[in-house]
Amino acid sequence: MRVTICGDKRDVGFQAAQAGALKIRQAIGTKGGAVIVLATGASQFEMLNALVQQDVDWSKVEVFQLDEYVGISEKHPASFQKYLKDRFVDQVKNLKAFHAMDGVAENPDAEAQRLSFLIAERPVDVTFLGIGENGHLAFNDPPASFDAEEPYLVVTLADRCRKQQVGEGWFSCIDDVPVQAISMSIRQILRSRSIICSVPDRRKARAVAMCLYDQISPLSPCSVLRRRSECSLFLDRPSSMLVLGDRR
What we know:
This protein has 248 residues and is α/β, with parallel strands linked by helices. The protein is built from 8 helices and 10 strands. The strands form 2 sheets. A 7-stranded parallel β-sheet has the order 1-10-9-6-2-3-5, sandwiched between helices. The chain has a 3-stranded antiparallel β-sheet with strand order 4-8-7. The chain has a single domain (2-154, 181-244), classed as Rossmann fold. Helix 7 (205-213) links the parallel strand 9 and strand 10.
């Protein structure tokens, strides 16, 4: 894992986008196309804003969602499908494909299986990630399954994860936050050829410390990223405060 400490969250987004775009261009140059996975949430605002401005032939790129709430339609303000359409899909030209999740699918398990089938046929070149306040990756809250082979799963969200969604302003209260989501599995995340992880903000400082220093364990899902040499972690000063020992 490579760790880069940036000046501020805008710099985090810019450097992460640059690094990811380079990997995408390399994949296109090597095999004629690229498959990427995009995360959502407040931590990805600056990265996506910078990514859509990168010099990439998006007509050769397929995009998968990292996760989605169960029971949330595309029209809901907190929908991750809506988030990615607004901030990425509608901002780039001639995207080859966007493999969106249906949060209101009648059978969430069948929807997870549909996505698993699609992504199994398309090796992922770059996965863009964040880390949750409780150390989750995607919606794999602790204790996360490190053994699940399926690319996508239906998971139950921990209360701390649901409170984070309220704290970021996506929902007005915890009762409004769905209790389940479709999430990319830990093993599928690690299958990506490259991982670009953007983690700005002081409230993520403990999660960053978990990632870098905790024992690799399902109780600290983000710690598993240390198993991957092709993982780049981008931090700002506040999120790296426990790494630097700077508690200002």
